[in-house]
């Protein structure tokens, strides 16, 4: 018994020492964790788009996400057939107001509404553009990538592949891909003379591996293509592609289990193996213009479903429902509930269709098949007109459009379908910034938003011109401490601030806890009027674009770096208050009072009405903790781990000797 007691003393001593060392190590670790502050979210490349948000013109909020499911795919029907831009195109929405008789006349000889010509259903936000306008293609790709699209399906269903337009699109996609962005991949949709179209595509693109990184595979091990396999005789093509057939919209067509519908006329939509289609509107009568006017000799077989039609409210003509996209939302809701592997959306930019030549001598009403006016069309791309506007005096709508409502709806539904939300708001890293100049260490790990654009370009189309912004914003960063909110903007060249131009390097900030709506959710506008001695303006608006100066912010310009220190109190944020900011950086926007212009002019981060969500309130590293103390604690942590390990080894060795 005495021997056991004597032998037990080293065990007790070593155990006590080990516990003390481990406790010291744990305390050191917790101390370092506490002074480090919150861990910032990942903001690398595409991940930065997950939590940007927007409130559209109808007050609908975009759902945020922490990640996207990798086993789900969303694609969008896309059209590249616009060979030349037009300044004054034939526009059905306008002609219905100005020249309805000529428009409906199937044989109009006045030249106002000629048969056989192409007609737009409305004016696009970017004008009646050409598909070789790189400026427009860049905007599209940025919008698609920001939305989280996996692929775009190019409409090549008429056995025309539009080589100049197709190569322009692929070249711009490649530029963004090379810059590190996960851009939507490309799927080709063929139907008429499918075998010939696929062979032409293979010879032009696929055979030599051109743009290989842009081919869409989806869940398959080969590049996917939509084609009629029975028309493809080449074994080389059959081995190269994964082929799925087109499912043409029409009640008389046989249902194809593996078919790929660009528009499903059934309600609810049918499931094709792993795919459900979603469309803005449906031409159930096969002639979209029959939604407004039919020929007595050719009765309408079924009612068309316009943009505002739904099973819940099966009527057309409701302007509020049209603006809200009630039709496609019902289709989205059904598709998301079914949770297929692929959702295919029709469409982005079909825009135009021809006025059909008279079908017979007795035809009295013109036919427009695939689209007609604003209600009877199926595009998501933004219209130049932001909404419908009614003139009480003449009793007519003098403006028709939906602005960016459908784009915001697309973004939100992609997140509902693919998004993963943990429900935890992560407070961003907060530091006190030295405003004497740009110091990289101050901004490391802070909230960052990168510009997706590869360069700053002017629009040089023959009919449409747009100057490049004065400053090309490469990125901006946000952080805060107890007194300030800091914003850093990095430009490509030395930053130009002020210069008698109030549109240069503005920061728009919205405070989510404020009751005032401000301008589109932004109550504060920073840096419109920089002054001498390192000061710039902080302006406030309770409602609308009516900003007036309320305070000063500090500004430092250090080459291509511009830093702003905005007092929290000027933003109506208390020192000890956690807060959520809406942040947006813009330069050279030409019509800043019009939110739709943020999609068009200048440099805008993020694009359009979208904004970055910044969660503030984290405690910065306390100023009374010198760096030497941090180094000492690191050494203590390392030493404790080493000594603890030695003690454990001694205990094990002592056990073996006994």
Strand content: 15-25%
Biggest sheet layout? 11 strands, antiparallel
Spans of at least 5 consecutive residues with low confidence: 1-8, 29-43, 621-637
The number of helical runs is: 12
Number of strands: 29
Give your account of this protein's structure.
This protein has 658 residues and is of the alpha+beta class. The protein has three domains: 2-37 and 623-657; 45-53 and 427-616, Immunoglobulin-like (Sandwich), CATH 2.60.40; 69-419, TIM Barrel, CATH 3.20.20. 25% of the residues lie in helices and 20% in strands. Helix 4 crosses helix 5 (163-178) and helix 9 (326-338) runs parallel beside helix 10. The model is unreliable at 1-8, 29-43 and 621-637 (pLDDT under 50).
Looking at this protein, list some descriptive labels.
alpha+beta; Immunoglobulin-like; eight-stranded mixed beta sheet; single chain; disordered N terminus; 3 domains; 29 strands; TIM Barrel; eleven-stranded antiparallel beta sheet; 658 residues
């Amino acid at each position: 018994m005495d021997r056991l007691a004597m032998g037990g003393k080293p065990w007790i001593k070593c155990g006590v020492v080990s516990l003390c060392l481990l406790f010291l190590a744990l305390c050191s670790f917790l101390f370092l964790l506490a002074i480090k502050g919150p861990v910032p979210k990942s903001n690398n490349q595409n991940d930065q788009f997950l939590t940007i948000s927007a409130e559209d013109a109808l007050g609908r909020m975009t759902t945020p996400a922490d990640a996207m499911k990798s086993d789900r795919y969303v694609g969008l029907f896309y059209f590249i057939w616009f060979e030349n831009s037009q300044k004054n195109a034939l526009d059905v929405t306008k002609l219905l107001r100005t020249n309805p008789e000529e428009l409906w006349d199937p044989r109009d000889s006045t030249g106002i509404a000629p048969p056989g010509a192409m007609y737009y259903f409305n004016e696009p936000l970017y004008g009646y553009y050409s598909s070789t306008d790189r400026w427009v293609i860049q905007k599209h790709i940025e919008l698609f990538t920001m939305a989280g699209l996996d692929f775009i399906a190019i409409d090549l269903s008429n056995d025309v592949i539009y080589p100049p337009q197709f190569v322009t699109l692929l070249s711009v996609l490649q530029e963004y891909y090379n810059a590190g962005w996960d851009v939507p991949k490309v799927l080709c949709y063929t139907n008429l003379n499918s075998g010939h179209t696929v062979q032409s595509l293979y010879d032009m693109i696929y055979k030599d591996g051109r743009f290989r990184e842009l081919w869409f595979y989806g869940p398959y091990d080969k590049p996917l293509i939509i084609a009629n396999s029975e028309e493809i005789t080449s074994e080389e093509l059959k081995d190269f592609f994964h082929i799925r057939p087109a499912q043409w919209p029409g009640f008389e067509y046989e249902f194809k289990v593996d078919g790929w519908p660009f528009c499903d006329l059934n309600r609810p939509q049918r499931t094709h193996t792993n795919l459900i289609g979603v469309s803005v509107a449906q031409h159930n009568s096969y002639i979209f213009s029959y939604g407004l006017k039919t020929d007595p000799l050719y009765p309408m077989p079924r009612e068309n479903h316009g943009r505002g039609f739904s099973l819940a409210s099966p009527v057309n003509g409701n302007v509020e429902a049209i603006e809200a996209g009630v039709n496609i939302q019902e289709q989205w809701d059904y598709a998301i509930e079914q949770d297929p592997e692929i959702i295919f959306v029709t469409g982005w930019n079909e825009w135009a269709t021809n006025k059909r030549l008279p079908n017979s001598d007795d035809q009295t009403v013109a036919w427009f098949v695939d689209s007609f006016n604003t209600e009877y069309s199926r595009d998501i791309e933004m219209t130049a007109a932001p909404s419908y506007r009614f003139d009480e005096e003449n009793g007519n709508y003098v403006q028709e459009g939906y602005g960016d409502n459908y784009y915001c709806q697309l973004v939100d539904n992609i997140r509902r379908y693919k998004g993963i939300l943990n429900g935890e708001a992560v407070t961003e890293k907060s530091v006190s910034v030295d405003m004497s100049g740009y110091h990289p260490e101050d901004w490391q790990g802070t909230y960052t938003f990168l510009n997706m654009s590869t360069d700053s370009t002017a629009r040089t189309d023959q009919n449409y011109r747009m100057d490049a912004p004065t400053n090309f914003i490469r990125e901006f960063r946000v952080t805060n401490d107890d007194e300030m909110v800091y914003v850093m903007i990095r430009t490509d060249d030395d930053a130009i601030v002020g210069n008698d131009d109030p549109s240069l390097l503005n920061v728009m900030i919205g405070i989510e806890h404020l009751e005032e709506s401000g301008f589109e959710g932004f109550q504060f506008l920073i840096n419109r009027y920089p002054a001498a001695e390192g000061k710039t303006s902080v302006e406030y608006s309770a409602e609308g674009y009516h900003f007036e100066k309320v305070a000063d912010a500090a500004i430092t310009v250090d080459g291509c770096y511009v830093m702003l220190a905005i007092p929290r109190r000027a933003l109506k944020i208390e020192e000890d208050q956690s807060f959520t900011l809406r942040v947006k950086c813009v330069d050279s926007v030409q019509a800043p009072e019009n939110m739709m212009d943020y999609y068009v002019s200048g440099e805008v981060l993020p694009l359009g009405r979208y904004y970055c969500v910044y969660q503030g309130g984290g405690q910065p590293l306390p100023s009374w903790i010198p760096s030497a103390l941090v180094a000492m604690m690191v050494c203590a942590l390392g030493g404790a781990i080493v000594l603890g390990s030695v003690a454990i080894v001694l205990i094990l060795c002592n056990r073996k000797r006994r």
